[in-house]
Write a structure and sequence with these properties.
- With about 80 residues, this protein is mostly helical.
- The chain has one domain (about 1-75).
- About 85% of the residues lie in helices and about 0% in strands.
- It is built from 2 helices and no strands.
- The chain has helices at about 1-45, 55-75.
- The mean pLDDT is about 85.
Length: about 80
């Protein structure tokens, strides 16, 4: 009889510990989500940095590079 009660107490204790762990994990996850949302909101409030415009030489170089890359892809498909 005593062993049965002790066994049931151990099972009940284990269940309560696991439930407490689940609740703590859920609260931690919710806290991380809240912190992430606050960080994202703060980042959105900051003005975006503007890129400097490309020079004509840079645009020509980029176009040449893209043409070379595309030409290489067409050759490999044949």
């Amino acid at each position: 009889m005593m062993n049965k009660i002790n066994g049931e107490l151990v099972i009940a204790r284990t269940i309560l510990i696991k439930k407490a762990e689940i609740i703590a994990d859920r609260e931690n996850r919710e806290q991380r989500i809240r912190e992430k949302a606050v960080r994202a909101f703060e980042e959105r409030r900051e003005p975006k940095k503007q890129r400097k415009p490309m020079t004509a030489e840079e645009r020509v170089a980029v176009m040449k590079m893209l043409k070379r890359l595309n030409a290489g892809k067409e050759d490999s498909n044949d």
